[in-house]
Amino acid sequence: MATSALGSDFYRKYLLDCESGLFAGIRETGAFITLHNCGDAAAIMSLYNDMDIDCWGYLTPPPFGDVDLHEAFAVMRPDLVLKGNIDQVRFMMEATPDQVRERVRELLEAVKARGNFILSTTDFFFDGTPYDNIDAFAEAGATQGRY
C-alpha cells in the first residue's frame, strides 16, 4: 500500500501511523530502515520526511512510477539517503551495455551535488536481465560512483 496511487489524504489517514509505528519498532532493535516504494510516490514522498527512516528507494520514474529525480531532490530532506531511478523493467532488459554505462554515468552526475545516494535500479533485477548489462551496471557504479 506504500503508493501514492490512492492519494496523500488516504495515505495520511490509513497508512502513515501504521507504517510509522512499524518503523519505530524496527528502530528499537537498532536496525537501519529503508522504505521500499517501487512505484508511484510523487504525491506522498514529502510525507517520508517525517518518518523515522534512513533511506527511501526507489525513485521510480515513468512509465512504471511517477517520481521526477530533481523534484525528489527538492522535496526530500538532505540527510535521507535515496536510491534507485534506473528502470529494471525495460531499460535493463533491453539496453546495450554501453547504454547502461551511460545511464549510470548520467544518474551519478545528477546526484553528485546532493550526495546521500545509493546506485540502484527501481527494484530487483528480473530473471533474464542480460548479464552483460548487470556487469556494465556494476562496473560503471564502481568506476564512477564514489563521490
Report on this model:
The chain is α/β, with parallel strands linked by helices. The protein has a 4-stranded parallel beta sheet, with no helix packed on it. It has helices at residues 8-28, 69-75, 91-94, 97-111, 131-144; strands at residues 34-36, 55-58, 81-84, 117-118. The protein has a single domain (8-144), classed as TIM Barrel (Alpha-Beta Barrel).
Short description:
The chain is built from five helices and four strands; from the N terminus they run H-E-E-H-E-H-H-E-H.
CATH class: Alpha Beta
Annotation, overall tally of beta strands: 4
Structural class: alpha/beta
Q: Report the sheet with the most strands, covering strand number, pairing sense and barrel closure.
A: 4 strands, parallel
**Beta-sheet strand percentage?**
5-15%
> What is the domain tally?
1
Mean pLDDT: 93
Counted by DSSP, the helix tally is 5
Report the end-to-end length measured between terminal Cα atoms.
34 Å
Helix content percent band? 40-55%
Spell out the helices and strands N to C.
HEEHEHHEH
Assign the CATH topology: TIM Barrel
Give structural attributes:
147 residues; alpha/beta; four-stranded parallel sheet; 4 strands; globular
